[in-house]
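Reopening this one. Same input as before:
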Amino acid sequence: MEQEAPVIGFGVDIGGSGIKGARVDLRTGDLTSDRFKILTPQPSTPQAVVEVIEQLLAQAEWTGPFGCTFPGIVRHGVLHSAANLDKSWVGVSLERLLDDATGLQTAVLNDADAAGLAEVRYGAARDRDGVVILTTLGTGIGTAVFVDGHLLPNTELGHLIMYGRSAEKYAAASVRERKKLSWEEWAGRLQEYYSHLEFLFSPDLIVVGGGVSRKAEKFLPLLDVEAEIIPAALQNQAGIVGAAIEAVERFQGGLPEH
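Same output, byte for byte:
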C-alpha cells in the first residue's frame, strides 16, 4: 500500500526566553525539520520579536502560511495580555504585524491553547470525548479546555483566585523551585488547585504539561482527583505543533485524516 505524502505545516512558539519554530507533519504530529530557536530579545517589544520571527522563517526557508503562539490572551489576532513579555504588546494585532512583515498568512493563538490542540490531535488526549483540561505547569499555569474535542479559547484558569492571589502564584512549578518545596509539599498545593478545577468544571480528563511533566512520576501519584490525570505526551514541541494545526485549519482547508 502506497504511503500517503506528508502534509507539512509550520509553527512558531513565542516564549519568555526563546522563540522556536519547525516544520510539522500534520498526519503524524512529528517535527520534520530541526527545531530552530532564537533567544527572545530584551526588551521583548513587538518590533523586536517580529524581527526575530522573520529571521527564524528565513533560517527555516519557510514561505507558506504559518501559526504562531503567544503567552497571553489572543482574540481575533489581537493581544489582550502579556504576562512574561513587554507590556507594549497589549492591544497589538500580532497577526497584522506578522502578515505585513513576512507577506505570509499568519494564525496567532494562545500558547496553552496551542499545546492543547496538539495533545488532543496527537497526544495524551487523542480520541477522548467529554471535558478535557490541559494545564501547563511552568513559570505560571496555562490552561486549555476542550469539550468533545472543541476548544474554548483563552480560559486562563491559572488566574483562579486562591488565598487572595492567582493560583499560579501558589502552585506553579516556578513556586516549587523558588520556595524549595519538596515534591510532597508541592503536590499538596497542586491538590488544592486541581480539586478547585474539578469542582468548577467536572472534567473527564486532566492532562498535565510543562517541562515538569517529564518528572510526572514524582508528583502525579500523590494527587487524589476523580478525573483521570495523566502527563502530556508532546512536551516541548506541543506549542509548535498546535500553532501549525491552527494555520492549516484556518488557511489550507483543514487537517488530513489520521
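So the earlier flakiness isn't reproducible anymore. For the record, The chain has seven helices and 15 strands.
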